[in-house]
Amino acid sequence: MIQKRSTWQKTAVREALEATPGFVSAQELYQQLLLQGQKIGLTTVYRALADLAQQGEADALSSADSETKYRSCTTEHHHHLICRRCGVAVEFELPGFEAAAEALAGKEGFTQVSHTIELYGICVNCGVSD
Ligand SMILES: [Zn+2]
Ligand SMILES: [Zn+2]
Ligand SMILES: [Zn+2]
Description:
Blueprint: H1 7-18, E1 24-25, H2 26-35, H3 42-54, E2 58-61, E3 69-72, E4 79-83, E5 89-92, H4 95-107, E6 118-121, H5 124-127
Parallel strand pairs: 4-6
Antiparallel strand pairs: 1-3, 2-3, 4-5
Helix pairs in contact: 1-2, 1-3, 2-3
């Protein structure tokens, strides 16, 4: 199946992603779009998400046991605190760490250093037990 690369599809994917509080897989987002009555293919959703991630408009999170999940994101550097159960993500900054990491890499003679920090836990909502 050949699909034209059109912008409304990407816009629809971006909007659906922005409306989602946590990380979602392409499959989940595709289901949401279908429910909204969007005529969009799963392949298009995958491609749009990959594009958004590449352009820094979305975070891509891949874990060993599941498919890649995406989240609408600020393009500025930040880290994530992610709920293992519901996938909700909180963004945070660690200015002290940034400086320390830069100093350490510089000391070792490394350039173009980058990092990703993702902390996993159980969020307030999921942590409430009966
Ligand atoms: Zn983020
Ligand atoms: Zn949770
Ligand atoms: Zn950082």
